[in-house]
Specification:
Largest sheet of chain B: 7 strands, mixed
CATH architecture of chain A: 3-Layer(aba) Sandwich
Strand content of chain B: 15-25%
Strand content of chain A: 5-15%
Order of helices and strands of chain B: HEEHEHEHEHEHEEHEEHEHEHH
CATH architecture of the largest domain in chain B: 3-Layer(aba) Sandwich
Oligomer: heterodimer
Radius of gyration of chain B: 20 Å
Radius of gyration of chain A: 20 Å
Distance between the termini of chain B: 45 Å
CATH topology of chain A: Rossmann fold
Structural class of chain A: alpha/beta
Number of strands of chain A: 7
CATH topology of the largest domain in chain B: Rossmann fold
């Protein structure tokens, strides 16, 4: 039987399913993290509903990546321009965007391709965010290209390090996408001796690439192991544990800011609703980081069950309200198709040359 | 007079000293070589990249996102094909982000045949380039235009693809670049790295160059005439001029347009000329099927149909998988002087 025809092993994720009790964070921070994780989850589930009720052509997102995404969002040097961190994210970044301050309404407008969609003006899919005010560069559908784009923003940051700039470039992407050559490019360019780049190269390993299981693609134990050949510092972090994520990201970011050198970190995460609406967007039986963290917070008496339920209810109501508003808004006009082909709406239509 | 390579080098010097260019990079772009055609010798911000075309284009895009200005090079356009999706993204970044991120980058790459470059140093890229919406595409045929177009490309807030006709890189111009020493030897002594010996301590002595820009989208009439129009760009331009000169000696005045920009292109110049002459030949060396000249011929046909005295013609490269190395093969593949002359004689003889 050809290799490609061999039956893939089921992707049983060897992920940690318990929240470490050895590591901890201030209680207020934990409450904030849970709040953002719940908000992200409610938003993602609302986006799926928006798709399933016919208000959107497509859904893709990051339920299962809340522990990683929220931790990342909290630790970013947030802002616009070269003095702040640059983000080259993939299409499962809702938790990070929610943490940075994106409203549910914004995400739903994008999902419903409304004219009011600030990320793309109704031009691109759900989850393809763009927020220059936070250096969130346009998220694209082609896989792994963001690892290459990250080289450029990191080059610009490296140039300014002698003047005290400690901003870094962060790139995210999936395990399967590391098969693309751009992943290797990022490792090569980030590690050139004497020209190392302040890059946080991350992989969210959910053990799937659409239908390709991790075990059928990867000979290496961890994707991040590949970076060891380039003398890049590596880490493997339980991406389902928000505390381990937070502390791990914090530690690796500190190293990058201090040294100006790259880190390649792999986060073992869940993919709770499949790849996208293309494979149904139905709930899968994988470890869920949100109720696990919720339980820890309740067990440690940081919040009560009632307080946690209030969060779910509050965000559910907000998501319904936002969906109703977005549904009432107009889509982009046909005439707008020529807008922003060139800066300043310079004529791009050859019929008018 | 400067060669096109020297002209591009001088423009890049102006770019890095006056226009904020932070990075000029690609394979062999930095010292000691300074580019396979020497177009980047002596530049302070020029550096050698990994041998990774996707990395080069992606890094340029990242620099653009960060707001820095760069000129990236793909050493020969034959090696740009594995970056097509990245070029598409550079072209759609402004549009896809609804105007939030522009992409102020220049990518330059040598194109075309004419240096006995064999299968993978002779490709053209103009037809594919014009299928990358959101980019501006330029292709000079003289050193002065090469200088002026590069400065405009650097200043443009959009991505600009700068196609360098490799067969013309060492050809000298007939017009001085503002600030260029009149004597070729003086210029060479100032800005050409020594061919032999140690270059490690060599530094260019740049002339006091002035800014001179060629507006992107603006063509140039290089020969005036009323019997027919030839529209071309890049390597085939000097050939078209020679054909016009030969025909003029025979008493036939043919108008020649150097398009200089492929997108946006100077339709008003083409339209005015073809309306006057009634006959037009579009010449380029890219492969002939789905050729950019076909688009221009289509437009001439549909918009100027009742003013035409003959069917518009396109003379382009043969639809072959490559340019063979032996001169017989190369000459049979891309337009040469005789081919252009043959087409023009047929066009001129055509009677409605």
């Amino acid at each position: 039987m050809p290799v490609a025809m061999a039956k893939s092993k089921p992707a049983v994720a060897p992920k940690s399913v318990t929240i470490s009790n050895k590591m901890t964070l201030p209680k207020e921070l934990q409450k904030n993290m849970l709040d953002l994780m719940i908000k992200s989850r409610v938003l993602e589930e609302r986006l799926i509903k928006v798709y399933k009720t016919g208000d959107s052509f497509f859904w893709i997102g990051g339920p299962g990546e809340e522990a990683f995404g929220v931790s990342l969002g909290l630790l970013i040097n947030k802002g616009q321009g070269i003095d702040h961190d640059f983000l080259h994210l993939h299409y499962r970044a809702s938790p990070t965007l929610v943490t940075l301050g994106m409203s549910m309404l914004d995400a739903i407008r994008l999902t419903m391709n409304r004219a009011t969609d600030v990320s793309t003006g109704g031009r691109n899919f759900c989850g393809h965010y763009c927020y220059p005010q936070w250096n969130v560069t346009p998220i694209t559908s082609p896989l792994t290209v963001q690892y290459g784009f990250a080289i450029g923003t990191a080059l610009a940051q490296r140039r300014r390090r002698p003047k005290g700039n400690r901003a870094i470039t962060i790139v995210t992407g999936g395990d399967a996408a590391s098969a693309e050559g751009d992943f290797a490019s990022s490792l090569i360019w980030a590690s050139r001796p004497g020209n190392e780049l302040p890059m946080f190269i991350t992989i969210q390993n959910n053990r799937w690439g659409i239908s390709t299981s991790y075990d059928s693609q990867h000979g290496e134990k961890h994707v991040s192991d590949r970076a060891k050949a380039f003398n890049i510092r590596t880490a493997v972090i339980n991406g389902n544990d928000p505390i381990e994520c937070y502390l791990g990201i914090q530690s690796e970011m500190d190293y990058i800011r201090r040294s100006g050198k790259p880190v390649c970190a792999e986060f073992e995460v869940s993919r709770l609703f499949g790849h996208s609406s293309a494979d149904g967007a139905n709930r899968r039986q994988e470890h869920d980081p949100v109720p696990a963290f919720e339980k820890r917070i309740i067990d440690q008496k940081i919040m009560t069950s009632a307080q946690v339920k209030e969060l779910w209810d509050k965000y559910e109501e907000e998501s319904v309200r936002a969906a109703d508003q977005a549904r009432s808004e107009a889509g982009p006009t046909r005439e707008s198709v020529w807008e922003n082909v060139y800066v300043g709406n310079e004529n791009a239509d050859w019929r008018k040359f | 007079m400067a060669s096109m390579a020297q002209a591009i080098r001088m423009a890049l010097h102006v770019g890095e000293t006056k226009l904020g260019v932070t990075d000029i990079f690609g394979e062999d772009v930095g010292a000691p070589l300074g580019g396979v055609f020497t177009a980047t010798q002596g530049l302070k911000n020029a550096w050698n990249s990994p041998l990774d075309e996707r990395g080069i284009i992606a890094a340029a895009i990242g620099l653009g996102l960060a707001g820095d200005r760069c000129v990236a090079e793909i050493q020969f356009c034959d090696y740009i094909f594995n970056t097509i999706d990245l070029l598409k993204m550079a072209g759609n970044t402004l549009w896809a982000s609804n105007g939030q991120y522009n992409m102020p980058i220049v990518v330059m790459t040598p194109v075309g045949a004419g240096i006995r470059g064999s299968i993978y140093h002779s490709h053209s890229f103009d037809a594919l380039a014009t299928r990358l919406p959101g980019w501006k595409i330029v292709c000079p045929s003289t050193p002065l235009d090469a200088y002026g177009l590069m400065l405009s490309a650097i200043e443009d807030p959009n991505p600009v693809l700068y196609l360098k006709p490799k067969a013309l890189m060492r050809v000298r111009g007939e017009e001085l670049i503002p600030g260029e020493p009149a004597d070729e030897k003086t210029l060479k002594a100032m800005i050409d790295a020594p061919v032999q010996g140690d270059r490690s301590s060599w530094k260019a002595k740049w002339p006091e160059l002035e800014e001179y820009k060629v507006r992107i989208g603006e063509g140039k009439i290089t020969r005036e005439g009323d019997k027919a129009t030839i529209v071309s760009y890049g390597r085939t331009m000097p050939l078209c001029n020679r054909v016009a000169d030969m025909l003029r000696e025979e008493g036939t005045a043919v108008e020649v347009i150097d398009l200089r920009s492929l997108y946006p292109y100077d339709w008003q110049m083409i339209k005015a000329s073809v309306s006057k002459t009634g006959k037009v030949l579009f010449v380029n060396e890219d492969t002939e099927v789905t050729n950019f000249g076909e688009h221009l011929a289509y437009r001439a046909t549909t918009e100027l149909f009742y003013e035409l005295m003959a069917r518009p013609r396109v003379l382009a490269g043969k639809n072959l998988p490559g340019i063979g190395l032996h001169p017989n093969l190369e000459e049979a593949s891309v337009p040469h002087l005789e081919d252009i002359m043959h087409e023009m004689r047929e066009l001129l003889a055509e009677v409605p």
